[in-house]
Known about the structure:
The protein is an alpha+beta fold. It has helices spanning 3-21, 26-37; strands at 41-46, 54-60, 66-73, 77-79. It has a four-stranded antiparallel β-sheet, covered by helices on one side.
Amino acid sequence: MQETTIKNLHRAALAAATELLGETTDEQAQAIEAAVKGGAQIVLELGHLPDPNFFALVLVEREGIRRRIVLQSWERATAH
């Protein structure tokens, strides 16, 4: 994969994650921040091919528990 392709993918992922985080409430954002400080990771999850109709931010806790934070479908964003 070419370096420019990887950079473009990285920029697109950052833009999508930023947009999704903008859908959270202040309370949710504070909970996410606390979880990340505690070792959790935020992962951008894409829908499955051949019809990828969503992308989501997923909080992966240190124990491996996965929680969708925000789901963006082609219709609308939903905070969880």
